[in-house]
Amino acid sequence: MPKLYVYDTSRKITTNITIAFARGVIRYNNSKNGPWQVKHLTIESYNKNGLPIDIEPGVDAVATLGILRGTGKMLKEAKARNIDYYYMDHAYFCPGYGGKGYMRITKNAHTCINLRDVEKDRWNGFHKNHDYQCLPWKHNSDRGRNILILPPTGAVSWFFDQGPDYWLDDVLTKLKSYLPESEHYRIQVRRKPNEPVVDGDGNLLELKAYPQSDQPLEQALMDAQCVVAYNSMVALEATLKGIPVITSENSCCNRVSYNLNIYKDEQDPKGFNIEPTNRAPLLFWLSYNQWKRRDIEDGTAWRMLQEIN
């Protein structure tokens, strides 16, 4: 019988989600693999002892929510040992820990980085009931000219084994080499207002406050020619608005991403006028990878995860 170790987060509101996930797995017995032996453990137990010695790659799995306070370290160990992991975090649409809110859950990834063809019924629900709109694709003449850059937080950089500003420095260096100096004013970097800073084990040290623009995000998007993001959900918001995005491979929008070298030969790339063919399928697919807490607790999320992975 495969084993699933679900770790809490040491915070009540998110631990309630991990408990619900464990209960959902228990309630749903996968007909293909048989029932799972499920244990809900404290992240403190991992910090003291590491993963259980009897955990078996290719058979057993772990699960948790977020990457702070030890959970990210546990996930990194699971990846290094080829142990399947289920990761929970804020959803793509209607995010929230309870009530009408949704959580995303991915297998062996921080976010959905693959793409499969699915029906559009779940997306239609978000479109109809929560007013999510997939707006017409914008032509260059309908967009601003700024290049809006959203770097990863320190915690995300740590999780993906990068230096704090490695990705940002690389993007800025390339863009400034592609564009004439007179166009550098278009490059706009927007950080999270309170960015988590972590130590070498992923433990939260502080929330670093960066100077913030007075410009609301909505206006920044209106002024943007494109959005360059590591894995920020702002890339998904831009995709919904018909704005081109350039992302890392660890973004849920990587399947609709352009390449940064599109700026090599053009200051206003004509390629941006062509809508990515995967835009609508991406929205359908992401809708299939998030659930309300009640769906997590009754086993619906686990059943669907087994069916779509």
Q: Would you identify the regions where 5 or more consecutive residues have pLDDT less than 50? A: none
End-to-end Cα distance, whole Å, is: 19 Å
Quaternary form: single chain
The biggest sheet amounts to:
6 strands, mixed
Structural class assignment: alpha/beta
Radius of gyration: 20 Å
Strand arrangement, major sheet? 2-1-3-4-5-12
Residue share in β-strands: 15-25%
* Overall shape: globular
Give the mean pLDDT.
Answer: 94
Order of helices and strands: EHEHEHEEHEHHEEEHEHEHEHH
Annotation, overall tally of beta strands: 12
Would you mind describing this structure in some detail?
The chain has 309 residues and is α/β, with parallel strands linked by helices. It has eleven helices and twelve strands. A six-stranded mixed beta sheet has the order 2-1-3-4-5-12. A hairpin with a 5-residue loop joins β8 and β9. α4 packs across α9. The longest helix has 16 residues. The model has no long low-confidence stretch (mean pLDDT 94).
Question: Which labels suit this protein?
Answer:
single chain, 309 residues, alpha/beta, six-stranded mixed beta sheet, four-stranded parallel beta sheet, 11 helices
SSE layout and pairing:
Elements: E1 3-7, H1 12-27, E2 37-41, H2 43-49, E3 61-65, H3 71-80, E4 84-90, E5 102-107, H4 121-129, E6 146-150, H5 154-159, H6 166-178, E7 187-189, E8 194-198, E9 204-209, H7 217-222, E10 224-229, H8 234-240, E11 245-247, H9 279-287, E12 290-292, H10 293-297, H11 300-308
Parallel strand pairs: 1-2, 1-3, 3-4, 6-7, 6-10, 10-11
Antiparallel strand pairs: 4-5, 5-12, 8-9
Helix pairs in contact: 4-9
